[in-house]
Amino acid sequence: MKFWQFCAIAGSALFAASAQPAAADDDTIKIGVVAAQTGAFVSAGNTIGAGVTLAVKEINDAGGVKIGGKSRKIQLENRDDRTDVNVAIAAGRELVNDIGVAALYGTESHDFSVSMTKITGPAKVLQFTGNSSLGAILTKESVAPGAPLHYTFQSEPPEFQRSGSTARGVLKLLGKEIGAPLKNAVVFVADDATGQYLSEHYVKALEANGQHVDLIKYPPNTTDFTPLLTRAKGLNPDTVHFWYNGDVTLVAFPQAVQLKVAKGYFLFGVDPGVWADRKLVSTAPVTLSCVPMCWGAPPTPEAKAYFDRYFAAGAVKGVQSSVSLLYYDYMHWYAKAIEESGSTDPDTVVAQIEKMKYQGVVSKAPLYFDNRHRVSFATEVCLVKPNTSDQFECAVEEPPTEPPAGDNGG
Amino acid sequence: MEIFLQQLVNSLSVASVIILIGIGITLIFGLTGIINFAHGEFLMIGGMTTWLVVSNGGGFIIGLVAAVLFVGLLGFVLERGLFRLTLDRPMNGFIISLGLIVVLQHFVIRFWNSYQKSIPEPLSGVWEIGGVQIIVMRAVVVLITAVVVAITFFGISRSRYGLALRASVADQETASLMGVPVRRYITGVFIYGSMLAGLGGALMIALFPITPFIGSTIVVRGFAVALIGGLGNVAGAVVAGLVLGLMDGLSAGYGLPEWTEAYSFALMILILLLRPNGLLGGTAGPRAV
Amino acid sequence: MSLLEVANVDTAYGAVAVNRDVSLSVAEGEIATILGPNGAGKSTLMRAICGLLKPKRGRIMLDGHDVTGLPPDRLAKLGVVMVPEGRRIFADLTVRENLRLGAYSREDQGEVEADIGRMESYFSILADKRSAKGGELSGGQQQMLAIARGLMARPRLLLLDEPSLGLSPLMVREVQSVIIDVRKNFGAAVLLVEQNAGLALSVAARGYLMQSGKIVLASAIADLRDSTLMRELYLGGGKRPPIKSRDVETL
Amino acid sequence: MSNSETMVDTAPAPATPESEVKVAAGAHLTLVERLIMPTILIVVLFGLPWFHPGYRLLSLATSTGVSAIALYGLAILVGQAGIMSVGHAALMGVGAYTGAILSRDLGMNLWTALPFAAIFSALAAGLVGLPSLRVGGHHFVIITFAFCGLLAIVLTNGGAFTGAASGLDIGAIAPLFGVSFGKLQNVYLLVAFFVLASIALTWLVMVSRYGRTLRSIRENEKLASALGIDVRFHKIVAFMLSGAFAGVAGILQVYFLQHISPELFGAFPSVYIALMVMLGGPRMLYGPLAGALIVTFLPEVLNLDPIDARIAYGIGLIAVILLLPGGVMAGLASLYRTLRSKVARA
Amino acid sequence: MSALEISGLRKTFGGVVALDGVDLSIDLDEILGIVGPNGSGKTTLFNVVTGALKPTAGSVRWRGENIAGLPAHQIARKGLVRTFQQAMSFPALSVRENILIAHEHGAASVNGKSMSPSDILHFVGLKGREEEIAGSMPFGNLRRLGVALALAARPALLLLDEPAAGLNDGETEQLAEIILQLPGRGIGVCLIDHDMNLIASICRRLVVLNFGVKIAEGPPNKVLNDKKVVEVYLGAPT
Question: What is the value of pTM for the model shown?
Fold first, then answer.
């Protein structure tokens, strides 16, 4: 009998302990981050929290968010989703419903983000999240006031824009380096949600730039790319384009060079900083690009200053470190939207963000969200000088305004 | 033709790692009936050991030897400490191995995070023979595997100990009546299988970066090899490893690459249903639980 | 001193007791037999003697040394080898490999090849089939191989468990002569368990009659053959043998 | 061994002393004792929202409940019929995708699609079990594992029909009898109801003729078939029943997350399901629930470091298998019996 | 015509002939004993008749219907129920559950006077032990449970495979009493045992197998003094 008594007592104590309602505090604005600090998505997840944390610290150090002559500090709640959807949802529930955050940043994964929007939407919590594949559900109708995704903002540009600017920049830099006209391209992409989504657009973008394209999808946990690369070699490509996980790209690329698959290569998600850090060298011409820009070769003094602060704060120099910049900007943007609208009311803030142009560090041109809540910014592409590990030639490519023929615009 | 030859050459190096894993699995499974799903984690630990040695200034050879020895020791400790206690209930051994996967993976993550780890390629260079690119390090991996497989095969088919091992796989009790210390052979097989996994890990990290999660993908291949080749049948494991490696390579090269993994799963299921003793014959499968 | 001395041994499978207070002995170079109907506990006793089963009680002595509870591989080294019931040939190993395996526990590995030669010259069928897989042999051939395999260990005591099981009358006769020769040509003592009383009675010098896990009669073979107890046990008739009822709960 | 007459002679004779004879576990429990657990269960399960546990806990409790439903299905298979499967996440996946596709293509809601989810998962189980259940324990385990891997690949490459790797979206749970499921509390209570129903159904199976039939197969297939039991048929039916549970869990999961993708139903989630069942105790009525609580709920509630929690969990599982092969609940039950008899003697 | 008619039954395992053209018939009002040395094919005969093994050739007619090759559970449902030498119970379950399982399955139609599970437990002397876990019971009780399980399956013909093996005298006698009552209840018995005293005292008819061949058949006193049978057991006089 004792044990069950113990259980009953322990159980009710547990529930009592967890039942304390969150005390409302009018002096702060609560902001939440849900991202992986452990598990398979950790390298992407860490950067979200790091970027937001840096921005929050800067805002608070400057006195907080000013509304109607009164300053309110930002209180940041960071949650680890452990790369587990159930934990992510629970964390989202906690932040949204228990703590009552006004805005949520994350997660890094398409699936988690989509499920999370079902929590943030009804609670009118702004969510800055995910990658370009969210474009599949963000439509004019679904982001309209009163619609389920009204409070959701996509952190990356429409895929046709990123693909378009990247393709153009890559072909320009490689064409110059190789010196011959580039005709045949092979695109390697992971066979997962993001990969399947973006490959549709990147292929179209290359075709729009006069390329004949073959697409090869690899299972996400591939380590030996040689069979696929040999297949690619049989297609006689001028260029091979590796999308989209920087870690995987760095596995595949050396194998391609050893097999002499193409004349030139493109690696998405590998930052020149990582290239230099790891003292990588390539005999073949190779281009790199990062979202939103490369921390190893920041194109503007503002961006450089940002990355200096960012790494000084102890962040990891990883392939995806520059993603933090997006979330850093969105945090500042959000604070500014509150200040300019003079209200924390979510509908007011969303309306404010929708009409704002925000000059952050992400790009030279001001950022804005389009009528599908997708941001726009340029892409930075860098060419690595052959046989060097720290000589880069970088260019910022502005996004195309219209999708190419046959591309639905993402 | 070049491309086809290149595909054949490519397939060999991955087949090598699968074979190294598969031999350990086929012997352990054949002898004890324990489905050790943590065998892939042994490979991961081998790779991590090599990485630790190399990143602390040791050479690759030292790293490789350290991996072989350390994982062998790990196998010894786990056999004596855990698996020995489940010999009469192999299904419990299987569940314990699932628990071990969780423990070993997270132990590595705990101390060395979950990012992928790589070492500089120990041997660089590519030979070109008739348009076929032969990557030197891969050739070395295939060579090392071939030597190890040859030694294993010779030991098992010719030596007195190999004979006793085969007899133990077939019928432990009668083997013990003939004076074979079966328990010691079980320990020995665990150690040897673990050492091969350690070697596989060291060779793998010489070719590709690895993460703490690599074990689960590789162990399924290992079991496919063991079951297709026939339990306890080393020659079968080698043949099945080559078949699987080639199938992977050719389906990625000529088929639909996104379905590559499906082929080996499907083949494994078919073989299990149609030829439960494996293509080349092995034990009738371990005694039922 | 006897070669093998079994003293007051009890055996059990888990909680289920089999042998009770069994004592017997085998002298150097002797052929002894344990007779009794199926289910009497003969094979279980053999398993205990060769180390496959630990006795619950009692001692097993070899040359006066206590070997109780030693594992079978240790006992094989000490010269106690069992030819198991059902022959248990390694079907996927060749005949020669089966023979070589029999010699596993020997220190003098150099002489193994010579001994295989001896076996092949004695069991001519094994020479003809030396490269065949064990599983390809007929039942009778397998039995010869099993005995030869046991002899390869150069045992001092060979335990034979039901060697005539499933063999044709012709083969049984052959087994009979082999058992006699084991003692003569290979110098090993034999402890034979047989259900086929005819075979056992014709080769052994001494016999033990076992029923319900206990030795109920021990005598020279001639006396055993003529005992009514023996006849009744095998063919019934007459009264039940006078065995003390054991302490088991009643209805 | 081809001929059973060549088996060793078996001459076991009576030996078990009367004091060592074990008695069936629940034999002497009083009515009050029998009612304690169900009462606690119902009170805690349905009372939880009134403790104001917070959304995080409620959300975790809901997902724990969803996996508990699948665990009960597996527990019937492992605990009663003695068949191990590490492919249960795949069967959940069949249920989840059935729900999502029926919603998308036929506009069905949770209530109308629920029976289809259960039926399709059961059929999938039957399809896998039909050829593979005859090859025996070890091989079957590996086949279920491979089946799981295959399904994930098929879903990933299923194009628009399965939503490929991005998966499928689904609307909220439709109101039933005027009850709306917009609030998490109500979703939780709904899942709690299904958990209770799973436990009740498992209990019914355990105490019924059907449960006895399954246990007879678990204990002794040869004897079972000699007594007129169609062993193969019942094994497949048990696997299908188990699949139906997984299907219900799957459709509840998709309606809880309102989005699914293939990754949720791969080989690793399957392994975790199997481990939770073994940890909690596959033969015990409350074993699967205990397993789900220990693995998915407890570390979160206690805010353990996730890595340390996983290590502790792995070690705990190994310890349970070695020390309490019947699982945590079986261990607790025997502890209770020991304490009880001590108290009774004192 | 007898209830069970076996003719020309043959079973081989690879090259080994386990049963070689066995003819046999059993009526439901008798107790037939089957004896023979180890390996003579007795249990194989049971295995083939009850569907655990498929016959190589020959027919098994049960109440006029050829049941050779049917799966075991179907044969059991027709009223042919057997016991095993080993594997006598469902060890982790209670006696009650054991008996219920047999009672709930078994033969489809009731043969003779059907007994309730409780009657059967009383009949075999396990009354009051319903909650005991089968696997922990003493051996004698386990044997009784084995017989009880077969009886609970409502057999028309009960095939008992060495039911007395391992039992002591008292237990064997109790078992004999149980078996002797069965024909009176409309249940035929076919009995394999090595205890010749048991066989001789309860069987009216005996069949002797050797090497899968029936070598003798008839009343016990005649068969057990048959020269061929004596030779099989004790060897040819030297």
Answer: 0.88
